């Protein structure tokens, strides 16, 4: 087990009364245990926490009046539990669709960013001949790593998995979307995970990976290879990036600073 210290700082200019929904707290999940945490603001605001029904992601909701500076600070100490050994992972098998639990079925469907319905033929040609299981999903991860360039600023909030495939460039969420879409095109349930992880030579930011449902459990994969998946502290899980935005707001604001830090 490894213990991580998290420090996340966000700063906004708020132009008009704005309703914020933040998702930046460490998740209550079997992968990890929160030892302590604290959430604070530079202004007196009334806030409350809630969890969404599908993914149990933790959200903080509040309203802020116009101001030059609104700041949020989140600190936490979290223990990350060990993942399955590589030897055990390599033996994991895919689960036939009739045997999937009901709650896993939504992760087979095409979604806003993971348009797997447009990748059926490509996925079949490239990976359909492989033995189903962990090694096939690992091959998808390797293919993305080999063929998609990590280029900051190369995508935006509208970029889909097929866009990434065409342009051969993206950032972590784009790599994850493509991995998810290819898995779903092969009948493998897959979903997005976002969290805190330390990445050398990059400015601090949240990180996105994907996980596939194999042998009755979720297994994590990161096509960017920027950090070991076992080092990631989960914030949220979703069908795609639309479910895991760190900040959603209704009003006019300007993001002045984002600094999610994690260290052992």
The tally of strands reads 14
Portion of residues within helices: 10-25%
CATH fold assignment of the largest domain: C8orf32 fold
Total separate domains: 2
The helix/strand class is alpha+beta
Low-pLDDT sequence parts: none
Name given to the CATH architecture of the largest domain: Roll
Instruction: Give the strand order, joined by hyphens, for the main sheet.
Output: 3-6-1-14
Number of helices: 5
What value does the Rg take, in angstroms? Answer: 19 Å
Topology as a string of helices (H) and strands (E):
EEEEEEHHHEHEHEEEEEE
Which CATH C-level class of the largest domain is it?
A: Alpha Beta
Biggest β-sheet strands, sense, barrel: 4 strands, antiparallel
User: What percentage of the residues does DSSP assign to strands (E)?
Assistant: 35-45%
